[in-house]
Amino acid sequence: MYCFYHFLESKFNKWKQNAITAAGGNGCGQKINQLNGPYGIFIDEKKNIFIADCWEHRVVEWKRNAKEGQIIAGGNGRGNRINQLNEPTDIIFDQQSRSIIIADRENRRVIRWMNQNQQILIKNIGCWGLAIDKNGFLYVSDQKKNEVRRWKMGEYNNEGIVVAGGYGRGDKLNQLDFPFFIFVDKDQSVYVSDVHNDRVMKWRKDATEGRIVAGRSGPGRNLNQFNHPQGITVDDLGQIYMIDWGNNRVMRWCEGKEEGKIIVGGNDQGKQSNQFNGPRGLSFDDEGSLYVADGLNNRIQKFEINM
């Protein structure tokens, strides 16, 4: 998602290593105080948390400091009716229409929900990740075609434009292998978590190939490696914040560096306040707190910044 993070002015910011559970944490289930496989998240200006609750086939909103959430999309069982979802993986907020846009993965569609009204925007797409840039263009990662495409907002009756990948599955600089979460910066460069290549790729606007900006040595747990990278965001300084799913940690990479730094997690798999189990998405609020969708622990963890 395109955003400015003015709080990340220092390259030496640190976060408290023990998190507060901001949503879920009450076991796996369909109750409104529970989550079941949270994936993509975003935080609005009021610090409300919006969650793609993948395996409950719904999107839930947790108000700030709430003890339970409320269903704002789906929640009508798994299915392909217009009021149903099937394993949603990512969500973004469209400021112009004040609506949410959902990657409805198993239904192979991108769908807009606004006040319980639904509109299918894009059909027949292996959608996983979503982003919007400063001009309102919509970006979708397509896992089946190993590419990222861009649409002009409101003009979805075409195939869009390929902005990353599109040259088949592989590990060359013009290829991707299972693109998942994406981020678009102010210059319309696209960052892609290239999951099965264990790297993050950056495709500048109109480029014919990308370049590796994080993860350089295949799968592993060293500081220059990932094990299935997932959620991604980038600050104004070009620092890349990544979920390292298989290593249960969040890393920060400065573009051009050979290795990253662990900022939270990395304490083995677990459910303690300094541990993760299969983290997926991440987001920041406007005070610099870091939120992580701790997937298999079925909770959203909030790490406050050390001031």
Provide structural commentary.
The structure is a single chain. With 307 residues, this protein is an all-beta fold. The chain has a single domain (1-303), classed as 6 Propeller (Neuraminidase), CATH 2.120.10. The chain contains no helices and 24 strands. The strands form six sheets. It has a four-stranded antiparallel sheet with strand order 1-24-23-22, with no helix packed on it. It has a four-stranded antiparallel sheet with strand order 2-3-4-5, with no helix packed on it. Strands 6-7-8-9 form a four-stranded antiparallel sheet, with no helix packed on it. Strand 2 and strand 3 (49-53) form a beta hairpin.
**Unreliable residue runs:** 1-9
**Lateral arrangement of strands in the main beta sheet:** 1-24-23-22
Give me the secondary-structure category. Answer: mainly beta
Helix-strand sequence: EEEEEEEEEEEEEEEEEEEEEEEE
CATH topology: Neuraminidase
Tell me the helix content: under 10%
> How is the biggest beta sheet arranged?
4 strands, antiparallel
Number of helices: 0
Question: Radius of gyration, Cα only, in angstroms?
Answer: 18 Å
